[in-house]
Amino acid sequence: MDFFDEFERLSLEVKTPRGRTLLIADPHIGFELSRGLRLRTRFEERLAEFIIGKDPDLLVILGDVKEPIGLSFTVKRLLTGFFSDLRGIPTVITRGNHDGRIGEVAGEFTNVEIVNHLLLDGILFLHGHTNLPEVDFDEAYLGHIHPAHHIGEGVLRKTKVFARVGRFLILPTVNPFIEGFEVRRGIGLVPFLRNAASVEIFLPEGIHLGRLSLDGHFPDLGKDL
């Protein structure tokens, strides 16, 4: 697997008042511990190398920096290594539902800020698991639901996608080891999108796959996210 190419496909760079802003969503560092893998992928080290290579003016992580809900010694060590590698890069984390106690690690790094949401000149950044903040914005970027879609005929292939509902663009998980969820199943977990009638989906390469009807039906994902 070419990690740099994968990270390039699954991230997004936008212009903000703070310069070139690199967006990534749902890295879920330490996912190996929760998903029964008996190997070290060193995913977080490769992701840090990619970010350093991109050298953004600002890095925004759209929540779920870590996978385990708790903060074990091992998770703390992985996060410390990740943030240490990014010491020279201003970083904002929009706190996700997996990010409890992350401040105990991130607080040691002066370049890292943890917020519930970030608003920059009409652009809103958030994770997507809570109600929409009462702020005025023109467009918004979020994560949380790991959007993916089945494509093809006969034997279907699931692929990660970017999903747009009006002013909201949902990024796929940047973690290449996490497959993602069918977007029509996941979008109901975003409180402010539950009444959406349809969603547009795009391949990471920018190809528009079309518009999916949601029909107001969102099957329960339980605790999968």
Keywords:
225 residues; alpha/beta; Purple Acid Phosphatase, chain A, domain 2; 5-stranded mixed sheet; 6 helices; disordered C terminus
The CATH architecture assignment turns out to be 4-Layer Sandwich
Q: What is the element string, with H for helices and E for strands?
A: HEEHHEHEHEEEEEEEEEHEE
Count of domains:
1
Number of strands: 15
Determine the N-to-C terminus distance. Answer: 25 Å
CATH topology call? Purple Acid Phosphatase, chain A, domain 2
The gross shape turns out to be globular
Question: Biggest sheet, in brief?
Answer: 7 strands, mixed
Mean pLDDT: 92
Radius of gyration, in angstroms, nearest whole number: 17 Å
Our estimate of the beta-strand percent is 25-35%
How would you describe this structure to a colleague?
The protein has helices spanning about 5-10, 30-35, 45-55, 75-85, 105, 185; strands at about 10-15, 20-25, 60, 90-95, 110-115, 115-120, 125, 140, 145-150, 155-160, 160-165, 170, 180, 200, 210-215. It is built from six helices and 15 strands. With about 220 residues, it is α/β, with parallel strands linked by helices.
